[in-house]
Design brief:
The protein is α/β, with parallel strands linked by helices and 202 residues long. It has seven helices and nine strands; from the N terminus they run E-H-H-E-H-E-H-H-E-E-H-E-E-H-E-E.
Length: 202
Amino acid sequence: MVLGHDFHSETGYRESLARGHEPMTQPTWRNLNALLGEVGIPPERCFYTNLYMGLREGTGTTGVFPGAADAAFVAHCKSFLIEQLRAQRPSLVLTLGVQVPPVVGVMSPELEVWSAGRGLKHLDTVGPVRANVTWHGADDFTTTVVALIHPSLRHASVRHRRYRELVGHAAEVRMIEDALALSGVATGPRVDASEGRSGALR
């Protein structure tokens, strides 16, 4: 499961609807697909969803989703996410961006540390890769969860990531590789971005 923050603006949705699909050249999809390919996760094996349902008014797509200020709406979105988790029973969940971890942190006892602070530094300090995660309301299975940068901001923000002895892009790649190993998810060929070829997942 790939869990983003929210979908799009009203304007962006109408444009995608008229086109018949979202443009794969936009930064979110372009950077996400490149990262998935590098760690050997076939996009077609992913279930893509968002923490917050609905659209933003107008054209804006950045910042905290406006509905996050409405407690009843947030509770509804959490409930819907739990239903998706119960139906999907994902072995691995990739969260995208800094807005998602604090919210899912209160939905799982193993992720509570994520809700105790904000930002990449906090996530990297408390551990961006969490194994054997259970969910309130869906505690009959466990999953591995990893907190990633939002793909649309990847090139500007990835340099701030720290994991084990690694920094930046290499740190996030290792996060996913560790999460894959912990989850037991089998992957496809790993694309070696530095050499432009495929190889076995490390």
